[in-house]
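Appendix B. One record, verbatim.
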Amino acid sequence: MTHRLSRRLSRIAPPLFFALAVACGGPSKDEVDVENAGKMATFIEAIAAATKAGGTDCGKIADGVEAVFREHKATLSSLDGWFAEADRDEARKVRIAKLMVPRLAAVRPQLESIVACGDDPRMKAVEARLKALTAGR
């Protein structure tokens, strides 16, 4: 009898523990979105600081932004696919935008340097990396 019970438990325990872990232990999509929106806003603020430090020199701006990408490599890896997943849900996109807009509005003027350097080949590469990131690639 004990052996039978043990075998039954060994078959149902793993899925049961998995279900409990998912139900009780994992963060919700809202929590993940708040955390990831904060990470992304911090990354963009760092890019804005790099563009401000570069002034009007497109080469310096590109150097600074590339350094930000290197410094935030782990963060960017953790965001891999997050945008693509969120992009499939309109309500979620709106919620994420609302989380990020207040922080990004403050740094928008600094980010305009990237647009001003749009013809610079290195800045085109930077723009392509940013687009790829937000596409979840």
